[in-house]
Each structure stands twice: as structure tokens, then as C-alpha cells.
Design a protein that fits this description.
The chain is an alpha+beta fold. It is 34% helix and 18% strand. The chain is built from 6 helices and 6 strands, in the order αββααβααβββα. The protein has a 3-stranded antiparallel sheet, covered by helices on one side. A 3-stranded antiparallel sheet has the order 4-5-6. It is globular, with a radius of gyration of 19 Å. It starts with 10 loop residues before the first helix and ends with a helix.
């Protein structure tokens, strides 16, 4: 887990790209989730959890030059979901800077991305498509089933039932 201090709004994306490149060069699969926390002084602070193979530890980002905005801390977390939930719940009444991304995830396999997309679909889509249909939102509206190329729309679904 990493906790870098604040930087510019897109600095966390740059940092994550450097981590992914470091892992890719070493043929390490990495999954991650991060959340932003707004500190009392108004600075954005990031909490990032990486799932890495046993025995792999990232170098310190501030010492590596990946995060030039202050110190970073690396620690092992036993309950990562509870850890992140604590910081997500802190931001309910605070106003993040305009354009600030407050969370992200990555590193899923193709099947993991397909499953995530399916679970995020409206109920009517899940009734007519399964995960292997690879439903995605279509430009112009509706849902495209990538497995067949078919575009379905809610009204067509409703009229058909």
C-alpha cells in the first residue's frame, strides 16, 4: 500500500503509469485500487493498494523519483477493503478540487474486466446477456454485445417482453 502526499490532479495517473511500467518490465501482474482523501488543510492525499505477488515490494516512489511532491509510505495491509473504506467515508462532507479523480482501479484481466462491466450493467441487460456476451455501452445509446456486435436498447427490450 502506498500513501503519497498531494500533487497536481493528474500526477496520480502519471505515478500509476510508472508503477505499471516497472511491473511490466519485471513481468509482474499488478492489480490496484486507489482513493483520494481530502486533508483538513485542503490538500489531496492518495491511498493506493497494490496486489503484488508474495516477495515483491515496490521501491519507495519518492526515492525512485516517481512522486516528487513529498514523502510516500509503504506498508502491508491485512484488510485492504476496510482500509480504503475508512478513507472513502471521510470525504462525504468535503469538496474536492474541480476535476479531481477521487478513485480508480486497474490491472484486471480481460475476463475480470468483462465481469466488472456485466455487474455494472442495468438489470435488463443482465437478464438478456451473460458475461461472455461482453456487454458495453454503445455510442449513441444502447448496449453493444461485443460477442455478436448486436446493439440492444431498453425500449426494444421492453417492447419485446
Amino acid at each position: 500500500m502506498e500513501t503519497p502526499t498531494t500533487g497536481e490532479l493528474d500526477d496520480v495517473s502519471y505515478f500509476m503509469r510508472l508503477v505499471r511500467q516497472w511491473c511490466k518490465r519485471r513481468r509482474i501482474d499488478v492489480r490496484y485500487v486507489w482513493v483520494a482523501e481530502l486533508q483538513k488543510r485542503g490538500a489531496v492525499h492518495y491511498h493506493i493498494i497494490f496486489w503484488l505477488p508474495i516477495g515483491v515490494t515496490l521501491p519507495k516512489p519518492d526515492k525512485q523519483g516517481w512522486w516528487p511532491h513529498g514523502m510516500t509510505r509503504i506498508e502491508w495491509v491485512k484488510r485492504p477493503v476496510a482500509y480504503l473504506a475508512k478513507y472513502v467515508s471521510k470525504g462525504e462532507d468535503k469538496k474536492f478540487p474541480k476535476g479531481c479523480r477521487i478513485h480508480a482501479f486497474g490491472g484486471l484481466s480481460e475476463s475480470g474486466r468483462n465481469e466488472r462491466c456485466w455487474w455494472l450493467m442495468p438489470t435488463w441487460v443482465k437478464e438478456i446477456a451473460d458475461i461472455d456476451d461482453k456487454p458495453r455501452r454503445a455510442k449513441g445509446g444502447g448496449i453493444v454485445l461485443k460477442s455478436t456486435g448486436e446493439i440492444v436498447k431498453w425500449l426494444n427490450y421492453r417492447l419485446g417482453h
